[in-house]
Sequence to fold (273 residues):
Amino acid sequence: MQRQLANMKQTLFDQGYLDEQFIQLEELQDDANPNFVEEVVTLYYRDSARLIQNIEQALEKSPLDFSKLECLMHQFKGSSSSIGAKRVKSECTQFKEHCRVGNADGCKRTFQQLKKEYATLRKKVEVYFQFARQIGPVEKACRSK
Amino acid sequence: MKKGGQKFSALVVDDNKMIRKVEEKLLARFGFETKVVENGEKALKLFDDGYTFDVVVMDMEMPVMNGPVATRALRARGVDCMIVGVTSCGDGPEKAEFEASGLNCCWEKPLNAEIVGTILNKLDNKMS
Fold:
């Protein structure tokens, strides 16, 4: 079971959904905070839902306020990088680039892609956490550098 | 750890609740006694109220009062503790401006174990 969980996680890394930061969060888990990662990820999805809504609304305005969009996306990128959401973060960077050059279509396209990645990641980590909870507390495996 | 077994103290200044939570835990894991506030103005208020910290972890972009403004204000008040900037802006004029406001150093977000370890080393060296 542990091996399955480890494989699940490895796949998420191999497919580029998560990066090193996720491991950093896992290493902060301890007996006092056994569900730290899940708490942080839950907080991320809750907080960023509001940001996504704001960005969506801002994208409906005409003409686009690129400065405001960039600012909103900056916050979103910060949060995403804090949980190791690698693909989401990459879309955020793209979006900011489009803002910088005033590319409205690019922004809208990238945002659609971003929402897809965001939703996919959510499903995948939900499965991961569900599985982890089933297994229960396990010995922290040694991480080979 | 400080000499005499006292813990180092840290102040996290960031408008993002999630980031505050992660940075607080990360610092606590390294033995820091940590407080968190959501913008530069609240950070200033703590110092004005007489709090002191060994290190301030300062986000760059925050509403009400941002990192560079808060850092400049702290230095102007004679606060000489370590102030570490964290930003997701990459290298560029904003980062340079932030560093020029009085930071000891500036790191790319997210804060991680390696960065905190480096901060701790610097503090240990300062102590000895």
Summary: Chain B touches chain A at residues 15-19, 21-22, 25-26, 29, 61, 88-89, 109-110, 112-113 (CB under 8 Å).
